[in-house]
């Protein structure tokens, strides 16, 4: 039972990272009208930037966190013109062409991580950030501080995002574009500017996620982004592309499932098992468990 | 007509979609305080004209003057900010959003005193108040049309472009909507209305234009058009 509880908590903190990433991915899909499946790779790039800044500043955690978040926002905003220019050149919103751009970005990022940082070796974050050594013990259950931080920040982050989406003027505009971009234009919503805001918000979500991944995993490697990207894409499709609430449920579900597999079976099988389940769900529910929102 | 009275002045407007020439040199003026109706069959170019005025389409040539300023090619969000608004063909309400959210979208560019604006819309359309937390997708066709008009009012417009409001509505509801447009006009809103329901529209309009395959083939006061044999023949039925 203790293993079970510990792994569920473990899974929830991992799951909240997936949820943040899926949310960012879906936001770009719904509001910026692009498929940016390499977005998690960019998040891992921010982890590397955060790591570099901490190395240069003698492990200044505040600066490291700031660097992770700011770099993610800047990287995302910098990609917006590329996506928008290609869409404009093709004369229409064109999801397929954005897919190619995203793929290119992912490849480039992975190459940069393999050659530009730490000679391609995995990086490890300072123990003070990772917070793994000091753990919370309740009975026989051991929970690391990092897991608690991740879970708490994940909950706050996702709640804040949904608050913004449903209670603010920008969120309303996001939802309008998500439902009907040309209708949104007719009521006077500036599509480009609002789209740009969604890149910034996605960058913020990604930056927070970069820090949480550093805290939770304590390390990163050039291949991490691709691995996470596959899972995020899978979660989004299983939940139903663009379905934010669905992404929340399935993202947490995947985290818990992986943690339980790690706790009871063998950790190395968790990817294979997760993707077998994806295949089964795709066969049963071709449009996703919660339906597409496109 | 006095020049200073002109709110909207469309000159030699040409719009094409790829190889399709939808407007082939259209001249339309709307004076402050008027209801002007555009009559035309399917595909005549009514929606294209209204959308282009709002800034959705970019014209190939010609000009659009609004309130003395050249707004040709200016984007819709700026035009809405400056007092143009549209009630789109097919209502264009956001079905997965609440009635309140739909209304607030109309005031996106200026949320100042938005709750007062909503109250005023509710005075026009009390039914929307009862439905305020309902998804717009659950509304009837007539209610959606009211919502689309209410949303347009939320932007504090000077001129409202209304694209075929009667489409798909029962005659009694159509009368209702037409009456609302008359009352809005009395309140000072200028209205440019496209309609296939020519008789009802001309009855409330000051002036009208007949559009055929992207060209104005006839224009005049509403009385003149109602009496015109060609109009009677083509648009007023028996
Ligand atoms: N997006 C588009 N792409 C290509 N052609 C278009 C497009 N929109 C309109 N057209 C064409 O432009 C012409 C004018 O269409 P428009 O929708 O303006 O007519 P309308 O008078 O509003 O017709 P309706 O009464 O059916 O709404 C038509 O020939 C139509 O086929
Ligand atoms: Mg039309």
Architecture blueprint of SSEs:
The complex is a heterodimer of chains A (294) and B (238).
Chain A: H1 2-32, H2 39-56, H3 61-89, H4 95-116, E1 123-124, H5 127-130, E2 135-138, E3 141-144, H6 145-167, H7 169-179, H8 181-186, H9 191-217, E4 219-220, H10 224-239, H11 244-264, H12 270-284
Antiparallel strand pairs in A: 1-4, 2-3
Chain B: E1 6-17, E2 20-31, E3 35-40, H1 46-54, E4 61-66, E5 69-70, H2 76-81, E6 84-87, H3 99-106, H4 114-124, H5 126-130, H6 141-154, E7 159-163, H7 171-186, E8 190-195, H8 198-204, E9 207-212, E10 215-221, H9 222-227, H10 229-235
Parallel strand pairs in B: 3-8, 3-9, 6-7, 7-8
Antiparallel strand pairs in B: 1-2, 1-4, 4-5, 9-10
The complex binds adenosine-5'-triphosphate and magnesium ion.
Magnesium ion binds next to α1 of chain B.
Largest interface: A-B, 17 and 26 residues
* Number of separate structural domains of chain B: 1
Report helical residue fraction of chain A: over 70%
Q: What is the oligomer described by this structure?
A: heterodimer
Mean pLDDT across all amino acids of chain B: 95
Using only C-alpha atoms, the radius of gyration of chain B works out to 17 Å
Write a compact overview of the structure shown.
The complex is a heterodimer of chains A (294) and B (238). Chain A is mainly alpha-helical and 294 residues long. Chain A is built from twelve helices and four strands; from the N terminus they run H-H-H-H-E-H-E-E-H-H-H-H-E-H-H-H.
Overview of the structural elements:
The complex is a heterodimer of chains A (294) and B (238). With 294 residues, chain A is mostly helical. Chain A is 76% helix and 4% strand. Chain A has helices at residues 2-32, 39-56, 61-89, 95-116, 127-130, 145-167, 169-179, 181-186, 191-217, 224-239, 244-264, 270-284; strands at residues 123-124, 135-138, 141-144, 219-220. Chain A has a two-stranded antiparallel ribbon. Chain A has a two-stranded antiparallel sheet with strand order 2-3. In chain A, helix 7 (169-179) packs across helix 9 (191-217) and helix 11 crosses helix 12 (270-284). The radius of gyration of chain A is 19 Å and the shape is globular. Chain B is of the alpha/beta class and 238 residues long. Chain B has a single domain, classed as P-loop containing nucleotide triphosphate hydrolases (Rossmann fold, 3-Layer(aba) Sandwich), CATH 3.40.50. Helix content of chain B is 37%, strand content 28%. Chain B has helices spanning 46-54, 76-81, 99-106, 114-124, 126-130, 141-154, 171-186, 198-204, 222-227, 229-235; strands at 6-17, 20-31, 35-40, 61-66, 69-70, 84-87, 159-163, 190-195, 207-212, 215-221. Chain B has a 6-stranded mixed sheet, with helices on both faces. In chain B, helix 4 packs antiparallel against helix 6 (141-154). The mean pLDDT of chain B is 95. Chains A and B meet through helix 7 and helix 8 of A and helix 2 and helix 3 of B. The complex binds adenosine-5'-triphosphate (ATP) and magnesium ion (MG). The site of magnesium ion has 5 residues of chain B, from helix 1.
């Amino acid at each position: 039972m203790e293993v079970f509880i510990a792994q569920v908590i473990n899974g929830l903190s991992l799951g909240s990272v997936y949820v943040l990433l899926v949310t960012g991915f879906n936001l770009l899909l719904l509001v910026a009208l692009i498929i940016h499946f390499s977005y998690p790779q960019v998040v891992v790039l921010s982890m590397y930037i955060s790591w570099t800044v901490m190395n240069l500043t003698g492990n200044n955690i505040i600066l490291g966190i700031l660097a992770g978040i700011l770099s993610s926002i800047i990287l995302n905003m910098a990609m917006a013109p590329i996506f928008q220019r290609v869409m404009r050149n093709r004369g229409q919103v064109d999801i397929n062409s954005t897919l190619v751009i995203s793929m290119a970005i992912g490849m480039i990022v992975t190459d940069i991580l393999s050659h530009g940082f730490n000679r391609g070796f995995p990086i490890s974050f300072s123990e003070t950030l990772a917070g793994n050594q000091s753990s919370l013990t309740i009975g026989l259950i051991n929970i690391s501080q990092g897991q608690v931080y991740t879970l708490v920040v994940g909950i706050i982050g996702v709640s804040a995002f949904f608050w913004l989406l449903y209670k603010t003027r920008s969120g309303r505009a996001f939802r309008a574009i998500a439902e009907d971009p040309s209708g949104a234009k007719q009521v006077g919503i500036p599509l480009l500017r609002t789209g740009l805001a969604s890149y910034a918000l996605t960058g913020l979500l990604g930056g927070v996620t970069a820090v949480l991944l550093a805290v939770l995993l304590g390390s990163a490697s050039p291949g991490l982004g691709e691995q996470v990207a596959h899972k995020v894409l899978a979660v989004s499709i299983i939940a139903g592309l663009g379905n934010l609430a669905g992404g929340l449920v399935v993202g947490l579900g995947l985290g818990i499932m992986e943690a339980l597999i790690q706790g009871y079976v063998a950790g190395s099988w968790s990817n294979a098992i997760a993707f077998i389940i994806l295949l089964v769900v795709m066969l049963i529910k071709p449009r996703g468990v919660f339906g597409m929102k496109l | 007509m006095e020049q200073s009275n002109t709110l909207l002045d469309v000159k030699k407007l040409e719009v094409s979609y790829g190889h399709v020439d939808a407007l082939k040199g259209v001249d339309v003026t709307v004076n402050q305080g008027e209801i002007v109706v555009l009559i035309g069959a399917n595909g005549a170019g009514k929606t294209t004209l209204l959308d282009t005025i709002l800034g959705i389409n970019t014209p190939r040539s010609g000009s659009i003057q609004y309130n003395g300023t050249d707004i040709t090619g200016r984007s819709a969000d700026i035009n809405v900010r400056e007092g143009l608004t549209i009630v789109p063909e097919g209502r264009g309400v956001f079905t997965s959003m609440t009635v309140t959210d739909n209304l607030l979208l109309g005031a996106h560019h200026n949320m100042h005193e938005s709750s007062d604006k909503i109250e005023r819309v509710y005075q026009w359309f009390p039914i929307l108040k009862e439905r305020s937390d309902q998804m717009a997708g659950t509304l009837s066709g007539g209610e959606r049309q009211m919502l689309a008009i209410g949303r347009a009012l939320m932007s504090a417009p000077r001129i409202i472009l209304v694209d075929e409001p009667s489409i798909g509505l029962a005659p009694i509801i159509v009368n209702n909507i037409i009456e609302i447009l008359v009352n809005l006009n009395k309140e000072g809103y200028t209205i440019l209305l496209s309609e296939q329901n020519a008789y009802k529209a001309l009855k409330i309009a000051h002036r009208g234009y007949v559009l055929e395959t992207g060209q104005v083939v006839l224009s005049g006061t509403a009385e003149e058009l109602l009496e015109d044999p060609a109009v009677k023949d083509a648009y007023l039925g028996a």
